[in-house]
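Suppose a colleague, Dr. K., hands you the sequence of a protein chain of 227 amino acids and asks what its three-dimensional shape might be. Before reaching for any lab equipment, you can write down a predicted structure in token form. Begin with the sequence itself:
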Amino acid sequence: MTNSQRHDRDSINTCGVEIKDIPGLFVAERTDFSKPEVVQKIAAQKRDVYTHEEIFGGSCTLTEFIDCPVELVYEYLANVYSMEEWTATVRKFDHVGGGLYRGVDTIAPKSPIYLRIDANDAARTIDFLCAWDQGLDLWMRYFFRLFDAQPIVGKPGSILSWTNFKHPYYDKSAVAPEHIVASRSRTDRPWVGEFWSLFNVVHGLEARNIKLILEHRFRGHGEEGAR
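The predicted structure, expressed as tokens, is then:
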């Protein structure tokens, strides 16, 4: 369906289950949001302090405003070699074939990192699919989406949204195929999962690297010079 086509309420696939038959939904048909006691009950669930595990235990999402046209941000990030500039540790990419690249993660220099970028210029999504040691099971996934900032926050530029999810393989105790077990069992380096608790901090610093690189180049030379 294109965005010009009219939607049909009856076309929703319910799998034979109606909304009225689903317990636990938080919807106006079941809750009177006009009652002060209901609003107070909702507000009481808000906390000023959350643990790191509660926020970043299963996923890690961050956003960054970049004062640079979104087309230039997309063009830059969709190029695998830009990672040698903005990531903290990933370097020395070479094309293996079929869109797969092999590089080095300097936190484990004895181990190669394999990566493929799946980018969609229409949706401005850039998916980084990667893994240590082997290039067949790219289980480490970094999902980028770029937005034109003007209609969102009322000023020119770009907004980067970056999300990671904690795959079970990050944990050494999780059931995994032999090639993952062998990678996790090595004693000559740390395992990537040992750094999961730092992902939000490190990726925040890397997002700032992206911002600094693109804003410095764009502001210094203008759109044409930034190419």
